[in-house]
Design goal:
The complex is a heterodimer.
Chain A: H1 2-11, H2 15-35, H3 39-63, H4 78-98, H5 115-124, H6 127-148
Helix pairs in contact in A: 1-2, 2-3
Chain B: H1 4-24, H2 28-53, H3 63-93
């Protein structure tokens, strides 16, 4: 389902359909996280991707009026792109299949990492990356506001 | 439980789809979407590896989960910034097609 929707994202002609298919694909990825016992990640995935990023993408599509000419076309190098993507897929799949298989002894692991453990780890071991990430977010927000606002030098 | 290699194959497929999208699309918004697909592929790999490494002893501090959270954070920042740039580009050049943005072409 993830792959099908992802394929739809790159082959559909309609920009709005592409965004909605991307939503389907991301929610399916959240389902994969649930299979892997990562409930917190699934929650974050649905909230941030399904909520925020898709809304922002739809806003961008509407503001740039791409919907007025929905028959967007691929560029002329798409056969080359397909060859490159398939080649990459082949290389990655070969590497994964050739790697020593971990027949997980974690099969029976029933519980996910508890939220408290995750939080403790985030604020002790990973405290400095956490602060850096918050700074990056702040800088990106300010930069986005400054870039997108009216009244720039070429406004 | 499903073998790890299945998750890795799904991840590889999603990454390849993202690569195709970045290379073949003309609209900048769609290129951003494809980049999101690739980031998600990487996240699937991280989470799967974390889940399967937990029982093997060489696993500490929920590294896979935490790094996936950071990837999601950076992806959110990247999308906001990229869409601001796209809006700016559209306002100045009235197009979102990347092959018509040749301002810096030599």
């Amino acid at each position: 389902m993830t792959l099908g929707a992802g394929l739809g994202v790159v082959v559909t002609r309609n920009v709005a359909h592409a965004a909605l298919l991307l939503l389907v694909s991301l929610v399916a990825v959240a389902g994969l996280y649930l299979i892997l016992f990562a409930e917190f990640l699934a929650l974050v995935q649905v909230l941030i991707y399904g909520g925020a990023i898709i809304i922002v993408l739809l806003f961008a599509i509407m503001l740039t009026r791409s919907a007025d000419y929905p028959r967007i076309s691929d560029n002329r190098q798409w056969p080359l792109a397909a060859v490159a993507a398939l080649g990459l897929l082949g290389v990655l799949a070969a590497a994964f299949l050739a790697a020593p298989q971990t027949t997980g002894e974690t099969v029976s692991r029933p519980q996910s990492p508890a939220f408290t453990d995750l939080g403790n780890s985030l604020f002790t071991t990973w405290a400095i990356p956490f602060e850096i990430a918050s700074l990056v977010l702040l800088a990106a927000l300010i930069g986005a506001i400054i870039i997108a606002r009216d009244g720039g030098e070429q406004g | 439980m499903v073998p790890l290699v299945y998750f890795q194959l799904v991840s590889a497929g999603l990454f390849a789809i993202g690569v195709y999208g970045v290379l073949a699309r003309r609209s900048a918004v769609l290129i951003v979407m494809s980049i999101e697909l690739m980031l998600n592929a990487v996240n699937i790999n991280l989470i799967a590896a974390a889940a399967y490494l937990e029982g093997t002893g060489n696993f500490q501090g929920f590294a896979g989960h935490i790094i996936a959270i950071f990837v999601i954070t950076i992806a959110a920042a990247e999308v906001g910034l990229a869409l601001a740039i796209i809006l700016r580009m559209y306002r100045n050049r009235a197009t979102v097609n990347v092959d018509e943005i040749d301002l810096m072409k030599w």
